Description:
Blueprint: E1 2-7, E2 20-28, H1 35-45, E3 49-56, E4 65-73, H2 76-87, E5 92-93, E6 100-103, E7 121-126, E8 129-134, E9 141-145, E10 150-154, E11 164-167, E12 172-175, H3 181-188, H4 199-215, E13 219-224, H5 227-230, H6 234-242, E14 248-251, H7 253-265, E15 267-268, E16 271-272, H8 285-296, H9 299-304, H10 312-318, E17 323-325, H11 342-352, E18 356-362, H12 365-374, E19 380-385, H13 388-396, E20 402-406, H14 409-419
Parallel strand pairs: 8-10, 13-14, 13-18, 14-17, 18-19, 19-20
Antiparallel strand pairs: 1-3, 2-4, 2-5, 3-4, 6-11, 7-8, 7-12, 9-10, 9-11, 15-16
Helix pairs in contact: 1-2, 4-14, 6-14, 7-8, 12-13
Amino acid sequence: MNWKSLSAGSQRQVMRDEPLVEDVEIRGHIIDSLILPKVLDQITSRGGSFRVKDISIGQGRHDPSYALIEVQACDRGQLREILAEIADHGAVPTALHDCRLATADMDGAFPEGFYSSTNQRTEVRLEGAWIEVDKQEMDCGIVVDTATRTACCVPMCDERRGQQVVIGHAGVRVLPPELTSERQAFEFMGSAVSTEKPKGAAIREIAAEMRRQKATGGKMLLVGGPAIIHTGSGEHVCRLIRAGFVDVLFAGNALATHDIEQSLFGTSLGVRLDHGGSVEGGHEHHLRAINRIRRIGSIRRAVETGQLTAGVMYECVKHDIPFVLAGSIRDDGPLPDVITDVLAAQQAMRDHLPGVTFALMIASTLHSVAVGNLLPAWVKVVCVDINPSTVIKLSDRGTFQTVGLVTDVEPFLRALMQELNL
């Protein structure tokens, strides 16, 4: 089907007699992914108008669509603003230009006007050819090496004087994720945040996805909070690790501390996990656990010397599962393995993210948002939390691919074990 010269109708705003115009094109699953209406809405909401000059809609489920759109604006500044916004949805000007580069004049800061990256696949145009951007991550700059014709996302703190940085949106194109039937089914089951949604079907789909990841050699990341231990769910996670459903663990001081406390003293925050009652002096157990590991030197050393014989951290060491423990200002101790420099913790996480295809985030608001900011858009993310705001924050802060499940930790993990036959 081809529609020619489709006008914006009533959405068109009164403009000058000779508005500035720029033709842009978008390709892919722009209808069922709602990319086309998003682009048109961005144009009109910023005071511009549009004319759809050509459109071709794919007939089959997997057929891509195409649209050629004339963008109209009152002045050059408004046009630049509109083009910058719709570029993040994959709208590329047809009058192609190479990306503009500027030399960084200092360490730790980009030149003014730098391109701020998204978490979606991105390419930059250099000498007439499109080059894929490596290490895709949101809220970074793009550094180009013209000698090797490569480009990658670089965090602001890692920017170094003399590097060539992309400026503006010219010569940059974003490639939104393709909406495959598998991805559509996976994301639909958790597309809305509600405490009243049926959990069984969602957990079955999460288990099925985890089995697919394992069968195809995917790399699975677990981001965990201390509620895993407090709710008595530590053994569920241990079983996931032993069964090969966890390839890397990100957490904070709290999860590791209370996991080790439970192993050494049978308590979590001084509460017995077997009967739920408190014990005398139990409030000191987490400090005594930290102190013992500090005296030994590390969690790995505690396992190797036979002083730590059970728990999530024990299973990570025994099964050679790498973990990153990122600290916070409120940490007691902390454990010797905890990274207290936040930039070093970010980098340690980045070092373990290549190859990650699936992330399960359980009961950890801050770590979930932090990791979400580092993940590219094509990594499938499941966030499970009793607090709906955790899931909402993840989506609102850019990790739009998040599938959310609002429920308590222990019932979720118990049901997941059943679906995985563990």
